[in-house]
Each structure stands twice: as structure tokens, then as C-alpha cells.
Design a protein that fits this description.
Blueprint lengths: L7 H13 L2 H8 L3 H15 L4 E4 L2 E4 L1 H28 L5 E6 L9 H10 L4 E6 L11 E4 L6 E16 L4 H4 L8 H4 L4 E4 L10 E4 L2 H9 L5 E4 H10 L2 E3 L7 E11 L6 H12 L1
Parallel strand pairs: 3-4, 3-5, 7-8
Antiparallel strand pairs: 1-2, 5-11, 6-9, 6-10, 6-11
InterPro entries: LysR_HTH_N, LysR_subst-bd, WH-like_DNA-bd_sf, WH_DNA-bd_sf
Keywords: DNA-binding, Transcription, Transcription regulation
Protein name: HTH lysR-type domain-containing protein
């Protein structure tokens, strides 16, 4: 092989000749002269010291060696184009990554439409979705959805989450009092309650902290504890008779305000602004 490396442009020319159906078509597609196309492929063959094309009738077709090498070159050309597209993406002011942190209390299902639309609009921006853990530095997060308002963040109410007190249909709580009587706090205190790790004020020996609503639902369905879950998450379980509403004297339903929060210490880029707008419409 020549000491001069075969460049990507030459492989691009060869690929275009094959895909377009000939030298004339490739010249038209690449906006070059036909002689320039022929020279590029001839030089590539000289550098590789291999025959890549052969003429059959009036058509240029790949040799077996050319077919093998172009197969690999196609992947290189595709990777290179993706690299160029990504560089242009960053150069035009887009973010390489956006971090979105969801408090465990907020059902991620509500964001499905917004997240899918964002992916369609900004396919090259990586979305780092973190859910239900407090082991992060909130100063490093671009967008936060939480009932807790964090310092250094702009915020406005995104909506409310309706929580319902539920337990497995065979949970002992339903046997504490007569069926028509409400369960009081003293009775509740006798049994474990599922809480999210963000509910730090509720941490007691009787509480079982989990990091996600899905974990909370699984524990409650197993009859290990009772707890408050979003209505959309337990509607099917209630209908199927796996869970029951706890007849509490007070607090059977809770409404928690949830806030959409962004950093105010650095200007938002267009990706963050767009995702924020989509989340607002979710």
C-alpha cells in the first residue's frame, strides 16, 4: 500500500458510484466532473494496490475485494457523518446533555409525550433522566420536578399529584376496626408505611423508605405495608380488587403541588428551554 492513506472522500466517491448506478450519475450527485470521479477511484486503487471496480458491459461493478472493503467503508462513512452532524449540533448552541431529575412522587407516565417529542426535535441531545434518588447534587441538574423547591432554581407549579391511601385487600388494617368505622392514626401507627426517600420528615422506625413509586406499589401489593400512591397508578389495582382504599378518619386523599424548576445561575440553552415548554404542556 502507498504511504499516502486512502481518504474518506475517495471511499465516498466509490460508494456513490455504486449507489447511483455509474460514473455519470455519481458525477451529477456529487457535482463533480466525470473525469474527477474516475481519477478519485483510480487513485484509491493505486494507493491500496487492489482492484475495486471492474467494467461489465456499460456498468461499473465491484470486484469481490471491492465489495468486501466498501462494506466496511460504509460504516466508517456513516460514523464520520454522525460525527460531523454532532459537531454542527454543538456549534449551533445545542447542549450535549440535559439532566432531568424527577422526585419519586411524580409519575413518569405524565411526561411520556413530552419526552418523546423532545427526542424527535433534538435527537442528538442526550437526556439524562434521574428518578427518585436524593444522592445527586441539585446544582448540577438542569431541570427538576419536585414538590420540594430548591434554592438557586426558578420555579413554577407544574401541577398536582393526587395521592390515595391504599393497602393490600388482605392487610390487617382492614380488620382493626369494624368495616364502617374509620381507621385512626393510632391504628395506622401499628403497621409499616411505605414512604419515598424524599419524605425525610416521615422517617421513623415504622416507615419503609423506597426510591420510586413503582417500588412502593410492589411492596404494597405484597401486603408488606400501606401507603399513599398516585390515583393513576393504583386505579387498575383497585378495580381488580388487589388493593383497597383505607377508610381513614382524615387524609385518605392528599394533593401535593409539584414544581418545575430550572437553574438561574447560568443562562438556559435552547434545548433546556424547549424541554421546559414541552413539560409545561404535558
Amino acid at each position: 500500500m502507498s504511504e499516502h492513506k486512502a481518504n474518506l472522500d475517495a471511499w465516498q466517491v466509490l460508494q456513490t458510484v455504486i449507489d447511483a448506478g455509474g460514473f455519470t450519475q455519481a458525477a451529477t450527485r456529487l457535482k463533480r466532473s466525470q473525469s474527477a470521479i474516475s481519477y478519485s477511484i483510480s487513485k484509491l486503487e493505486d494507493q491500496l494496490q487492489l482492484e475495486l471496480l471492474t467494467i461489465q458491459g456499460r456498468r461499473a461493478v465491484l470486484t469481490s475485494t471491492g465489495e468486501l472493503l466498501l462494506g466496511r467503508a460504509r460504516q466508517l462513512l456513516s460514523d464520520y457523518q454522525q460525527l460531523i452532524d454532532y459537531a454542527r449540533h454543538l456549534n449551533s448552541g445545542h447542549a450535549a446533555e440535559i439532566s432531568l431529575w424527577l422526585d419519586g412522587i411524580y409519575p413518569v407516565q405524565r411526561l411520556q409525550k413530552a419526552l418523546l417529542e423532545f427526542r424527535q426535535q433534538f435527537p442528538l441531545t442526550r437526556l439524562n433522566l434521574q428518578h427518585g434518588t436524593t444522592q445527586v447534587d441539585m446544582n448540577e441538574i438542569d431541570i427538576i420536578i419536585s414538590p420540594v423547591r430548591f434554592p438557586g432554581k426558578s420555579h413554577h407549579q407544574l401541577g398536582k399529584v393526587e395521592l390515595m391511601a391504599v393497602a393490600h385487600v388482605n392487610h390487617p388494617l382492614f380488620e382493626v376496626n369494624a368495616p364502617l368505622e374509620a381507621i385512626d392514626q393510632a391504628a395506622l401507627a401499628q403497621f409499616p408505611r411505605i414512604t419515598l426517600t424524599s419524605e425525610s420528615a416521615l422517617e421513623t422506625a415504622q416507615n419503609w423508605p423506597v426510591t420510586t413509586l413503582q417500588q412502593a406499589r410492589e411492596y404494597i401489593l405484597l401486603g408488606l405495608a400501606y401507603g399513599w400512591l398516585p390515583i393513576e397508578m393504583v386505579a387498575d389495582d383497585l378495580k381488580a380488587g388487589q388493593l383497597k382504599l383505607l377508610p381513614l378518619a382524615s387524609g385518605q386523599h392528599e394533593h401535593v403541588s409539584v414544581y418545575l424548576q430550572c437553574s438561574v445561575q447560568q443562562p438556559e440553552n435552547k434545548d433546556v428551554q424547549s424541554l421546559t415548554k414541552l413539560l409545561d404542556l404535558a
